[in-house]
Amino acid sequence: MTFTYVHVTLQETLWTPYSIKIMLAQAIHTFKxxxxxxxxxxVCKGRSGVxxxxxxxxxxxxxxxAIDLYNRLLDYQQQAYLRDKQNLVIVRALNKYGINNFTIxxxxxxxxxxxxxxxxxxxxxxxxxxNILAVAxxxxxxxxxxxSKLKISESMKGKERSNRVREAMSKRQKGSANTFYxxxxxxxxxxxxxxxxxxxxxxxxxxxxxxxxxxxTEVVTTxxxxxxxxxxxxxxxxxxxxxxxxxLHNRYIVNFSS
Length: 258
Description:
Elements: H1 17-25, E1 29-31, H2 37-44, E2 48-55, E3 61-66, H3 69-75, H4 79-84, H5 89-97, E4 102-110, H6 115-126, H7 146-156, H8 163-172, H9 187-199, E5 210-214, E6 219-223, H10 226-233, H11 237-242, E7 247-248, E8 252-256
């Protein structure tokens, strides 16, 4: 499906209070109070589209898009998001100036499959200062430094996401929101995947023994590997690893043998 956009182009080479008025005139919805979540929810919940942050103090802007605009705009209200996403220019700006010094506008609503196309149009139109990527939805032209890669890696270790974030992540991967929805691998792709799987070397390295004490029955069981222990205790290997030397399920004390 192809769309042709015929919006008026506005170049942001010079900022004035009047230029903000022009920006707002091009919006289909304006939220001058970015913390008015009830209004944002009423307009944006369950709708896909393109949004824009406008800094009321200097006119700099950011353009983004989302499958669910309300969930995305809600992220910017979360202290954890503002703390953990400081690699994003817009987040650093929100932390510096305060979200109350920004206006949120909805540039347009789209079908979910056209979100990136619409976002790219508005990025090309406005060339927003706070967008570090010139291509919507990609990292083309952007490379993390070794230092930033290390910081990202360290920040993610042992991190537990809230139930709200987990539910939102799950929702974005289900049904029509999944990028592979209603698609299937070609026979050639399936054969390539199969060939690579057959060529993969199988490791015969023995697993790490796991000793588990059942505090209710005082029975000690030793498993040959973490996989075997996780299956017996009905938990993931990640959860099992987090409880090494700790109490799991309020019942089992887990210890990995060295």
